[in-house]
């Protein structure tokens, strides 16, 4: 039988269309005849990968015969990993989306076999891919798939965790009603728990949780408030300070979005200690991250108590003024720095700190270059109390 199956494999590889069709018909007769022959077929060279490839064949008969063989093999638990690894999922989903009624029936049967009695990893992998199909999405919701996947997100298997979170993102993406179901089912506290610093979740799982939180919660103030009520602010600050590079970047981007939601969010972030933590991030190599950190800081200092937090260390003002010069040619970051400095000029003591910083020439240079924000700052600094001091510095 092994010799016969190797011969069929050769015909499937190099034969013309008719020879391939005949070889597939013969293969189906073999695997339908004896379970032992299924094992031999799976172990014979490239038969599985050839069957997966032929699912996309333009020849309908070849496609159908391949699907029949895969459906038979999918009935055996030990071969499901091999089928999924060969890439049979995507072609079956395409049939569900736009195939004939008979084709859809066969594809659904095959996918059902791949998921029933499987371990969590296989089930999650298959259903994650199916979640984008509208009819199946609705069926999954009716069958309490959201609750099941929220539970799987807390499993001990990293791959299951990540695939479960990806599934949830796919299923609620662009659908407000499903997003609300995920929230009602406890999706927010599940995601927040993954970010607990003392938990055993991996960086990859936490990365996916950050992305899921952003898409789930950042569409309304109500969901932001739910998120913050579960201690998310402290976790966000922790990863901004201590996270691995990718996690820190995500924490920074989420911080930028969060402080743009409301003055209450800005106040909460100030009280938690965010403003001073953003200063070191203004020096990172990535232009995008520097701009994100500058934008977040510019937004936060619109609240007076956050300005006080920022200038508790005098060096922070000098650092901002130095950065004005280092960001020459980068109008985006420069605009944020000038916005921060303009906010700081609302108080006499902070105006004195700016004048005494030793870096006034950086603002002066921009003002002379007709940069409107810099001119406004110079004008604000040139009050009656500071004019003499300022002139003395400019003339020195």
Description:
The protein has 396 residues and is an all-alpha fold. The protein is built from 28 helices and no strands. The longest helix is centred in the first third of the chain and has 17 residues, at 17-33. Helix content is 76%, strand content 0%. Helix 2 (17-33) packs parallel to helix 5 (60-73) and helix 21 (287-300) packs parallel to helix 24 (331-344).
Mean pLDDT: 84
Global geometry: elongated
Which structural class is indicated by helix and strand composition?
Answer: mainly alpha
- Biggest sheet, open or closed, and with what strands and sense? none
Q: So how many helices?
A: 28
Overall helicity: over 70%
C-alpha termini separation:
97 Å
**SSE pattern, N- to C-terminal:** HHHHHHHHHHHHHHHHHHHHHHHHHHHH
Q: Rounded to an integer, what's the Rg over CA atoms?
A: 30 Å
Beta strand count: 0
Low-confidence parts, pLDDT < 50 over ≥5 residues?
Answer: none
Strand content: under 5%
Topology summary:
Blueprint: H1 2-14, H2 17-33, H3 35-43, H4 47-54, H5 60-73, H6 80-86, H7 89-98, H8 101-115, H9 120-130, H10 134-142, H11 145-152, H12 158-172, H13 176-184, H14 187-194, H15 203-217, H16 221-229, H17 232-242, H18 245-259, H19 263-272, H20 274-278, H21 287-300, H22 304-310, H23 315-326, H24 331-344, H25 348-355, H26 360-368, H27 372-381, H28 387-395
Helix pairs in contact: 1-2, 2-3, 2-5, 4-5, 5-8, 7-8, 9-12, 11-12, 12-15, 14-15, 15-18, 17-18, 18-21, 21-24, 23-24, 24-27, 26-27
């Amino acid at each position: 039988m092994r010799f016969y199956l190797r011969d069929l494999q050769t015909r499937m590889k190099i034969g013309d269309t008719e020879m391939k069709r005949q070889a597939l018909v013969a293969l189906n007769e073999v695997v339908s005849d004896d379970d032992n022959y299924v094992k031999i077929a799976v172990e014979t060279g490239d038969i599985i990968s050839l069957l997966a490839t032929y699912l996309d064949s333009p020849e309908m008969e070849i496609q159908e015969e391949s699907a029949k063989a895969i459906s038979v093999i999918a009935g055996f638990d030990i071969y499901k990993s091999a089928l999924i690894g060969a890439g049979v999922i995507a072609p079956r989903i395409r049939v569900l989306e736009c195939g004939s009624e008979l084709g859809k029936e066969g594809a659904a049967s095959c996918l059902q076999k791949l998921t029933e009695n499987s371990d969590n990893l296989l089930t999650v992998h298959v259903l994650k891919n199916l979640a984008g199909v509208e009819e199946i999405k609705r069926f999954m919701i009716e069958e309490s798939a959201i609750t099941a996947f929220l539970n799987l997100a807390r499993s001990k298997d990293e791959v299951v965790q990540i695939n479960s979170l990806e599934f949830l993102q796919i299923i609620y993406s662009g659908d407000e009603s499903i997003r609300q179901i995920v929230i009602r089912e406890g999706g927010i506290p599940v995601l927040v728990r993954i970010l607990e610093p003392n938990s055993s979740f991996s960086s990859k799982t936490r990365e996916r949780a950050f992305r899921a939180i952003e898409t789930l919660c950042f569409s309304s103030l109500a969901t932001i408030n739910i998120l913050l009520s579960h201690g998310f602010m402290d976790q966000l600050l922790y990863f901004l300070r201590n996270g691995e590079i990718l996690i820190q970047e995500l924490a920074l981007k989420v911080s930028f979005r969060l402080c743009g939601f409301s003055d209450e969010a800005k106040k909460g972030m100030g009280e938690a200690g965010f403003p001073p933590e953003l200063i070191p991030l203004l020096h990172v190599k990535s232009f995008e991250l520097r701009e994100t950190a500058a934008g977040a800081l510019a937004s936060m200092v619109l609240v007076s108590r956050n300005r006080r937090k920022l200038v508790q260390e005098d060096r922070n003002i000098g650092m901002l003024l130095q950065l004005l010069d280092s960001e020459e040619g980068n109008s985006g970051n420069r605009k944020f720095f000038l916005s921060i400095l303009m906010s700081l000029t609302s108080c006499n003591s902070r105006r004195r700190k700016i004048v005494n910083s030793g870096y006034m020439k950086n603002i002066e240079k921009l003002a002379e270059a007709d940069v409107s924000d810099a001119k406004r700052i110079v004008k604000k600094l040139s009050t009656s109390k500071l004019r003499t001091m300022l002139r003395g510095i400019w003339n020195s």
